[in-house]
Amino acid sequence: MTPDLQATVKDLMPRLTEELKQLVRLPSVAFPGFPAAPVEQAGVAVARLLADAGLPDVRMMDVPGAPQAVFGHRPARDGAPTVLLYAHYDVQPAGPEEAWEGGRPFDPVERDGRLYGRGAADDKSGIVMHAGALLALEDDCPVGVKVLIEGQEEAGEGGIEEFVAANAELLEADVIVISDVGNYALGVPTLTTSLRGMAACDVEVETLEGAVHSGMFGGPAPDALVALCRIIATLHDDAGSPAVAGLATMEYDGAPYDEAAYRTDAGVLDGVSLIGKGSIGQRLYGAPSINVIGIDAPRVDGAANALIPKARARVSVRLAPGQDPADALKAVQAHLEAAAPWNVMIKVTPGTTGEGFLAKTDGPAYAAATQALRQAFGKEVVHYGVGGSIPLVAAFLAAIPDAEIILWGPEEPQCKIHAPNESVDLAELERCTLAEALFIAGLCDAR
Ligand code: BES
Ligand code: MN
Ligand code: MN
Questions:
Q1: Same domain, residue pair 143 and 81
Q2: Rounded CA separation 406/191 (Å)
């Protein structure tokens, strides 16, 4: 081990924790309808953080239809390789404040070694990890470093994918490090071998010109919500497996996910069955999953005795790595249209799509990352899939096809990313930062 780096990162932690708190205080939600100012401020704060970490040439770059991205570059010396570090500074909306203990999603608090706040893990911890690794590295490290921190990951599709495609030369690197995933379990060093893709759409059903009295007219006329529910009910078979023809599966051969651990991590209530078939890992990382993530219909409180003329649902499908999201979307659309009962009017509007990812695990950088993780955590490294999506990874691969891509970070299952009471374990952040510093320092030897 490089004892210096270990001690250096340890000494950096108070500063890095403070920097992370500063970032969490900025509610950088880049969704439509949320204030733009804190998003801009977060971009500026990230630029300052990277400049303070000694990265030269830090600048804000325009991204079509998205907040500005932060880019900085220290050129390689003596023929050393170049690494591109990626993370995102936008966050999910906080959701209902009451659901947060203390009620303050953007007022970070430290409790039992964890820092709580929206974005504390996803993905402001990833930004701090990069900055920390840069701070820890000695000046004589000849590895070239590029950093790209963007502000529109959570919003799904945006200009950032086009930005990457249009700036392939600027972003050119031997290795791309994405710190926007997490360990298999807290304290277990992990490399992510795959990401699922996604395809979402909105399905709207209409049956009547308008709402009418449900006693006077109910019976012969179909109400739109019942029709929509029947359509949704066809998306799974009785065992709960996806029932849409044309959705691909892939064999998952990474680390298994214990069923009891999965139930605990996901918070599945006692007695509630799990759905689908195959191992948990296979269902999560090698198979599609179909969920309804939103529905527009009258609220129960104040519901009138009236037939519902129109209802809408958002169907969100996670795809096995390797499936073309456009094909999947077509398959889902065709399924929904064919499932519409009673000749109701149905309209399917395509939504977010994103490609999955399958890592190349036999390259020198992957081996070096494994080694760095093992050193930093003092444990054997686990290789596993992630059920979530980072569509930009496929865009990186398309733009820079020869680069090796490393996915890691502090977003382990206890972080509750996207949920109330999101948090990051600060010791985990320290270990991840150390791993990244060791990795970059060791990159020269790996080539
Ligand atoms: N950091 C997550 C990806 C992730 C998910 C990592 C689960 C580890 C575990 C990322 O910010 C994210 O939320 N991605 C979106 C992508 C979507 C908007 C296209 C997702 O998976 O929903
Ligand atoms: Mn993220
Ligand atoms: Mn996210």
A1: yes
A2: 7
Q: Which atom of ligand 1 is nearest to the CA of 156?
A: 18
Return the sign of the alpha-carbon dihedral for residues 429, 433, 434, 438.
Answer: positive
Tokens (6 digits) for 144 = 């070239």
The total number of structural domains that make up the chain: 2
Residues listed for the chain: 447
Give the Å distance between the CA of 136 and the centre of ligand 1: 28
CB burial of residue 309 (10 Å; 0-12, 13-18, 19+): middle
Residues designated as active site: 90, 153
What whole-number distance in Å separates Cα of residue 31 and Cα of residue 158? 11
Report the CATH number that the domain containing residue 180 is assigned in CATH.
3.40.630.10
Domain assignment of residue 176, given as a range: 3-195+356-446
> Locate tokens 């490294």: which residue?
381
* Mutation probe of ligand 1 site: the residue of 417, 418, 428 with most atoms within 8 A of C-beta: 417
C-beta of residue 322 within 8 angstroms of C-beta of residue 358: yes
Q: Where are the beta strands (DSSP E) in 297-432?
A: 306-307, 310-319, 345-354, 357-358, 382-386, 404-407, 423-425
Q: How far is CA 100 from CA 23, 97, 218, in A?
A: 18, 5, 42
Q: Which of 350, 31, 354 is nearest to 202 (CA)?
A: 350
Query: Phi and psi of 215, rounded to 5°?
Result: -85, -40
- β-pairing verdict for 82-88 and 175-178: parallel
In-domain check, residue 404: yes
Tell me the best of 91, 184, 262, 389 to mutate to test the pocket of ligand 1, counting ligand atoms within 8 Å of each CB and taking the most: 389
Structure tokens at 70: 């932060």
Please give the single-letter amino acid code of residue 206.
E
pLDDT tens digits for the chain (447 residues)?
466 999 999 999 999 999 999 999 999 999 999 999 999 999 999 999 999 999 999 999 999 999 999 999 999 998 999 999 999 999 999 999 999 998 799 999 999 999 999 999 999 999 999 999 999 997 778 999 999 999 999 987 779 999 999 999 999 999 999 999 999 999 999 999 999 999 999 999 999 999 999 999 999 999 999 999 999 999 999 999 999 999 999 999 999 999 999 999 999 999 999 999 999 999 999 999 999 999 999 999 999 999 999 999 999 999 999 999 999 999 999 999 999 999 999 999 999 999 999 999 999 999 999 999 999 999 999 999 999 999 999 999 999 999 999 999 999 999 999 999 999 999 999 999 999 999 999 997 655
Same domain, 340 and 373: no
Ligand 1: nearest atom to the Cα of 318: 21
